[in-house]
Specification:
The protein is α+β, with helices and mostly antiparallel strands. The chain is built from eight helices and 21 strands. The strands form five sheets. Strands 1, 3, 5, 7, 9, 10 and 11 form a seven-stranded mixed β-sheet that branches. A six-stranded mixed β-sheet has the order 18-17-16-19-20-21, sandwiched between helices.
Amino acid sequence: MTFRTAPHRARLVSLAAGLLGLGVIGGRVEIVAVGAAFALLLAARSSRRPAVPVQVDLRLSEDRCIEGEGVWVVVTLECARPVPAADVVLHLGPGLSVVKGEPRASVALSPGVPREIGVKVLPTRWGVHPVGPVSVTLVAQGRLLAGAVSAPAQPLRVLPRPEAFSASAAHPFMRELSGGHVSRRSGEGVEFAGVRAYATGDQLRRVNWKVTSRRGDLHVNEQHPERNAEVVLFVDTFVDPGPPGMTSLDVAVRAGVAIAEHYLAQTDRVGVVGFGGVLRWVPSGSGGVQRYRVVEHLLGTELVATYAWKDLTVIPRQSLPPRALIVALSPLLDERAVGALADLARRGFGVVVVDTSPEQLLHPPASTLSEVAQQLWFMEREAMLRRLGDIGVPVVRWLGAGSLDVVLGEVSRLHARPRLVSR
């Protein structure tokens, strides 16, 4: 890196020129002498422009953390020649706050001696936050010369705060693959279902000899098989109301991570569909790799304003596999999302809506007119929830562990009853 003229030198040049001009015009020799001294000093110091190789490194103590956990950012400077002053500026995004250290510092560098500057930052919201870049301005010769060098930003992935979640209710839909859910049907498994008379093709190891000896006829045991389930998280990104840190998307992302981790831990398949201004999806999958895919997708969830009308035709068919339980995370404030969920329910999907509207969304009415408007809005919302319930779409508030138990049982009951088919 080669030093160049610094802004401070330009100010001194203007001062020297001003003194010379003032002395000549006023006929003051002493002022001309002072201006000439400044000019000679600037010319002497600016004649040599040294080249100093400088290395700047930016590293993070952790590239992943959870909301509320601090991360150390370390900036390391190394140079081959002494530098009297180096001004370091660490640029941080709006989602990061400094809790220890200073993002701006001025240090002196010695050749061959690394100089480290540590800053502890605290992420205030989930997501992918850029830490940096780092801008370093090196000055020499009384700040007459300056050189700039920088280090690129590093991404910090901030995971949502872990939410406690568990669903002990039976999953309403099962796939024909082995998994961790006990099916309501009988078959090969380890969960005892009952005893029935022997039929051709039954294996002898399933014979219940106690019942057989008591009744005189062969009887066999029946078991409930363990089956695999499929869950698709439907994230509404049309609107994002609420105070910072507790917006609709904040609740949806934290709840989505908790639900995904719960079902993936049971060897189920989990997918994600982000339905909003930008359509994004992750095909269903299982295992540890799928957990990282789902989390990375949810970390990239953001609000994108759009006025285009969207329905199910824009959603890829492979992102909504048959016999999948769709868990919609939505504040139910946009007609496009509500219409898409109703359409999914009419097509036979099991749909559960988790209401992510933040508490106390509306301010207390300031006048009689605003109070009447609020009452009308509440009545319209209640009617909309009732219409969703009539087509088999239950709505539940996110309350953490056990939030979906009652709802899953209701979905199982609704999809188990016979349906009338027009002919």
